[in-house]
């Protein structure tokens, strides 16, 4: 497939972008690391060389109080310019363009010095901000202009003003967080004065030949959010004030509606960009869950937007655009929207990376140079760990033979992709399959690796990536055919009744609750998905919210755990709340502090708080963790050949593809 709209240049008058692809802003954590700007330069250089039309950096504060965290980056002084020049020189040397995002955290600042329009604490930080004085507001506007002027001096091609996601500017715009009674609050005219003054000040400071992107919150998804008429009025005001491009912002960080997780339909919010496109004359950028060139081309070709923003897809594959241009979209390592290594890391103050691409943000540390001593390596198990090791080791010049006992590759990903909202996992399996062909990995399906093969074929080393097996629970009655494990259910080996108890409330337990509770995936049906979460695409209410439409429950489901800690506490930091909410949508009964006693014709006998109960269920599904599949490890070690364990066979924690793929990459780098 060709992508004429995606690859078409965009003329901005004083400059031209080579295509319609924006690499959206992502905070990597490198901004604060010692020597981080050199690593950041390598990160952005690869993306620029990979063909992206315009890059936007992670958020940089215009002043001290606007920082996201105490030691977060800011650009306020001339002496700070030098390190930014390292990044811009790298991007320009690779033929790219780059804008710096200016972000003031406002009440989202994770420190006690935060400022906001009003002294209202955000639900996602422990710190209550101070209300800004009129003098502080004026000073902050000047700080934005100073930061933009310094960005130009540092070689940036423009700036993006972060006016969405619930940060400071968004806090001024919305009556939800702006309770002021002066010229900066009250009427919409007063509430919108702050962003307009900022843009005017920046334009005056940088001149007419400098890109200004404004990230406008087009859909707040919170109570007391902006009305559609206010969004339109502000967009027109921004155009008049000198903005070059308007980027789409969706949802506040405190919104209780998912906006970028894997369960969000692809291109789910392009409709709101299209709606605004009828109102302004400057280019508009569509964003959120655009992760393939096909969906990007569709959005542009249909006239919904003038550009598309993709952030995490460039963590997954820096060569996204070049591969699309070469007609090789099947070779793109697709972002699956899992958040596990990017946003989850960011919110834990760790360096961001990518589950499907462990090199992301480690470009100076993880590389796969050709080996001077090629080896013949046997790999057991074609799950994520085994496939990752195989392609990286083969790319270095090793002769890799991958053995898989089943008739398909993918391992646990073949189970995960059957969960509603996790259909993206198909893409990773497709990518690995194609990469194995590209790198020359010899794949032997339906073939078990044993010691005789190692010796007969003269392998030098063996890598065991045999994964995990479900942990069994031995209690009276648990030998019943109605007590099954999650793998049997997802593989279609057993029939599940209408009344179900799930033993184990980790990630697998919540996934099974979703699998059993949702008849058809709403991720594949955008209208149903919007109805399920209460998104008003008619935009009749503030914030674009409406009452969610509850679908009838498919089954009676009990989700049980031994621990007394809150249910789902160990789930992903940025996605756990989604899984918990979906379980409630499906009417799942959640119980913690449960002791399991037996199962019989009456049901599952349990004890909770010293009280004995019998749950009327006809199927019990074990989701109580895994054990390493080490059945052949001793046999392999007995051959005397070097044996390496990676993935679940090494550590059988919660299913952890992030660790498995990274282990495979790191072993391939040093073997």
Automatic annotation (TrEMBL):
Essential cofactor(s): FMN; [4Fe-4S] cluster
Swiss-Prot/TrEMBL keywords: Flavoprotein, FMN, Iron, Iron-sulfur, Metal-binding, Oxidoreductase
Limits of the FAD/NAD(P)-binding domain: 376-651
Record EC number: 1.3.1.34
EC category name: oxidoreductase
InterPro entries: Aldolase_TIM (IPR013785), FAD/NAD-bd_sf (IPR036188), FAD/NAD-binding_dom (IPR023753), NADH:flavin_oxidoreductase (IPR051793), OxRdtase_FMN_N (IPR001155)
UniProt xrefs under Gene3D superfamilies: Aldolase class I, FAD/NAD(P)-binding domain, NAD(P)-binding Rossmann-like Domain
GO molecular function: 2,4-dienoyl-CoA reductase (NADPH) activity; FMN binding; iron-sulfur cluster binding; metal ion binding
Domain NADH:flavin oxidoreductase/NADH oxidase N-terminal stretches: 6-327
PANTHER family: 2,4-DIENOYL-COA REDUCTASE, 2,4-DIENOYL-COA REDUCTASE [(2E)-ENOYL-COA-PRODUCING]
Protein name per its UniProtKB record: 2,4-dienoyl-CoA reductase
Species for this entry: Shewanella amazonensis (strain ATCC BAA-1098 / SB2B)
């Amino acid at each position: 497939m060709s992508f004429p709209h995606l690859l078409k240049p965009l003329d901005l008058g004083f400059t031209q972008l080579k295509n319609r692809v924006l690499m959206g802003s992502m905070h990597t954590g490198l901004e604060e690391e010692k020597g981080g700007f050199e690593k950041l330069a390598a990160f952005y250089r690869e993306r620029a060389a990979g063909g992206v039309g315009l890059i936007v950096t992670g958020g940089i504060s215009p002043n001290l109080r606007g920082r996201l965290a105490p030691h977060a980056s800011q650009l306020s002084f001339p002496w700070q310019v030098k390190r930014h020049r390292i990044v811009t020189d790298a991007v320009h040397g690779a033929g790219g363009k780059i804008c710096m995002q200016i972000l003031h955290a406002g009440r989202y600042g994770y420190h006690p010095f935060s400022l906001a329009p009003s002294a209202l604490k955000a639900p996602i930080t422990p710190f209550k901000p101070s209300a800004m004085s009129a003098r502080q507001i004026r000073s902050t506007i000047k700080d934005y202009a100073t930061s933009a002027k310094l960005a130009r001096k540092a070689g940036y091609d423009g700036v993006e003003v972060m006016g969405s996601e619930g940060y400071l500017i968004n806090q001024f715009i919305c009556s939800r967080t702006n309770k002021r009674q002066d010229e900066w609050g009250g009427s919409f005219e007063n509430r919108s004065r702050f962003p307009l003054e900022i843009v005017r000040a920046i334009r005056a400071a940088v001149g007419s030949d400098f890109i200004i992107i404004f990230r406008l919150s087009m859909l707040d998804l919170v109570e007391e959010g902006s009305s559609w008429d206010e969004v339109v009025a502000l967009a027109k005001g921004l155009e008049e004030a000198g903005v070059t491009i308007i980027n789409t912002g969706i949802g506040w960080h405190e919104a209780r509606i998912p906006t970028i997780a894997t369960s969000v339909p692809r291109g789910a919010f392009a409709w709101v960009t299209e709606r605004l496109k009828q109102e302004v004359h400057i280019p508009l950028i569509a964003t959120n869950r655009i992760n393939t060139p096909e969906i990007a081309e569709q959005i542009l070709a249909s006239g919904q937007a003038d550009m598309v923003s993709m952030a995490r897809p460039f963590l997954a594959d820096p060569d996204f655009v070049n591969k699309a241009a070469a007609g090789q979209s099947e070779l793109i390592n697709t972002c699956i929207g899992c958040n596990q290594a990017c946003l989850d890391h960011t919110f834990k103050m760790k360096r961001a990376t990518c589950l499907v691409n462990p090199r992301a943000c480690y470009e100076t540390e993880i590389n796969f140079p050709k080996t001077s001593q090629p080896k013949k390596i046997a790999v057991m198990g074609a799950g994520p760990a085994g496939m990752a090791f195989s392609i990286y080791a083969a790319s270095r010049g090793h002769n890799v033979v991958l053995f898989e006992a089943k008739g398909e590759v993918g391992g646990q990903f073949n189970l995960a992709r059957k969960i509603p909202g996790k259909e993206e996992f198909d893409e990773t399996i497709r990518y690995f399959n194609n990469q194995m062909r590209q790198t020359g990995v010899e794949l032997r399906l339906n073939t078990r690796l044993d010691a005789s093969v190692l010796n007969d074929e003269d392998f030098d080393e063996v890598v065991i990536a045999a994964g995990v097996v479900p942990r069994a629970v031995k209690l009276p009655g648990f030998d019943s055919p109605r007590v099954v494990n999650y793998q049997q259910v997802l593989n279609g080996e057993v029939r599940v009744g209408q009344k179900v108890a799930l033993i184990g409330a980790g990630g697998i337990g919540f996934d099974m609750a979703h699998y059993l509770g949702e008849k058809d995936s709403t991720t594949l049906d955008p209208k149903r998905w919007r109805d399920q979460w209460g998104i008003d695409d008619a935009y009749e209410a503030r914030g674009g919210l409406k009452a969610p439409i509850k679908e009838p429950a498919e089954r009676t489901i009990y989700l049980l755990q031994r621990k007394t800690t809150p249910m789902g506490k160990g789930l992903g930091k940025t996605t756990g709340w989604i899984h918990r909410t979906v379980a409630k949508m499906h009417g799942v009964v959640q119980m913690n502090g449960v002791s399991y006693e037996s199962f019989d014709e009456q049901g599952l006998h349990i004890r909770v708080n010293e009280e004995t109960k019998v749950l009327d269920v006809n199927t019990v599904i074990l989701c109580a963790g895994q054990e390493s599949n080490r059945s052949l490890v001793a046999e392999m070690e007995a051959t005397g050949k070097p044996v390496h364990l990676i993935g679940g066979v090494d550590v059988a924690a919660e299913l952890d593809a992030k660790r498995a793929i990274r282990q495979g990459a790191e072993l391939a780098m040093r073997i």
